[in-house]
Amino acid sequence: MRGAEQDGRERTRTRWRWLPWAIVGLWAAVLAVAGPLAGRLGDVQVNRAVDYLPAGADSTQVARIQETLPGGESTDLVLVYHRDGGLTAADRALAARQSDEVARDHPLTAPPHGVPSKDGTTLMYPVSTTAPGQDDEARTAFVDAVRETVRAGDGLEAEVGGPGALTADAQKVYGSVGGPVLYTTVAVVALLLILIYRSPLLWLVPLVVAGVADALSMAVVYGLNRGFDTTVTGQSSAVMTILVFGAGTDYALLLVSRYREELIRLRSPHAAMAAALRGCGPAVLASSATVAAGLLCLLAADLNSSRGMGPLAAVGVLCALLAMLTLLPAVLVLLGRRVFWPLVPVHGAEPRRRRSVFAAMGGSAGRRPVAVLVTGGVLLGALSLGAFALPGDLKQEDSFTSAPDSVTAMTTLADAFPGRSTQPITVMTPTSRADDALARARTTEGVASAARVRSGGGWTELSVVATAAPESAGERNTVRALRDTLDGSHVGGPGAQQMDLDTASARDLRSVVPLVLLSVLVILVVLLRGLVAPLLLVAAVVAVWGASLGIGGLLFEPLLGLKGTDPGLPLLSFVFLVALGVDYGIFLMHRVREEARAGAGPTEAALTGLRATGGVIASAGLVLAATFAVLTNMPMTGLVELGFVIAVGVLLDTFLVRTYLVTAASVALGRRIWWPGALGRTPAAPAPREPELVGAP
Question: Where are the extended beta strands (E) located within 520-570?
Answer without folding.
Answer: none
